[in-house]
C-alpha cells in the first residue's frame, strides 16, 4: 500500500497535536462514523466497500485509514496485512460521506476458519481560522474485519449455539471458561452466570468482552467465588451478529 508523504503521515499519526504558546482546546468530539460495527469480507469477493460519514455538520475532518492484525500499537507503515484499502488519506467535508475500497491481495489465509483484522480510522479536526495556537485532539476508531472463507460449515449464529461453557476454580477465583469448536469468531456484548432464573454472579471484567476465536477459548473471572452449582445453573450471554445486533442466548454448563 502506498502512503502519503512523511510529513503528512507524521501529522496524522499523532494522537494529540500541540502548538507551543497560548493554547485553545478544540471540542473533544469525534465526527467520523463507520457504517457498521464490523465488516465481513467474503473470500470469493473481489472487494468490499466501507462507508464513512462525517457527522459534524460544521467542520471538516482529515482522515487516515489502515488495517492491522490485532496489534493496535503498530503504525500504518509497520502493519503487514493481505489487504489494500483506498483512499488511505482524505479530507471529509461537513456532513459528507466517503467510500473506502478494501481489496484482498491473495496472500494465503486459512481456508477452514475465519481470520480477524482491525480497521483503524484516525480523524484530525481542522485548524481554527482565528489565528490562535491550538491543542487539537485526534480520534482513532478501531472496528473488526472478518475474512470469511467460502464453504465454512454452519453459520455464525450456529457457532454461538455450539459454544461450550464450564465453571473452573483457580487461584484467582471462580472462572467461567468458553470454548469455541466452530470455524467462526464469536463476539459478546455481555456474559453472566445465572444460578437461578436471573444472573446473579456478574463477571469481574471490563465492558469489552474478548471475542473467542475459532477453535479457541476465553476465560472470564467472576466477582465472587461460586461453590456447588444448583440445578438449572446456566450461562446467559448476548452474541453480536454480522449486522451488529445483540442476540440474547443461554447455554447449559458442561460438567
From TrEMBL:
SUPFAM superfamilies: PapD-like (SSF49354), Periplasmic chaperone C-domain (SSF49584). One of its GO terms (cellular component) is outer membrane-bounded periplasmic space. The keyword RNA-binding does not apply. Residues 1-30 form the signal peptide. It comes from the Bacteria. Residues 31-152 form the Pili assembly chaperone N-terminal domain. It holds the Pfam family PapD_N. It is found in: Periplasm. The keyword Metal-binding does not apply. Gene3D superfamilies: Immunoglobulins. Its main location: periplasm. Keywords: Chaperone, Fimbrium biogenesis, Immunoglobulin domain, Periplasm, Signal. Residues 178-246 form the Pili assembly chaperone C-terminal domain. This is Pili assembly chaperone. It comes from Collimonas fungivorans (strain Ter331).
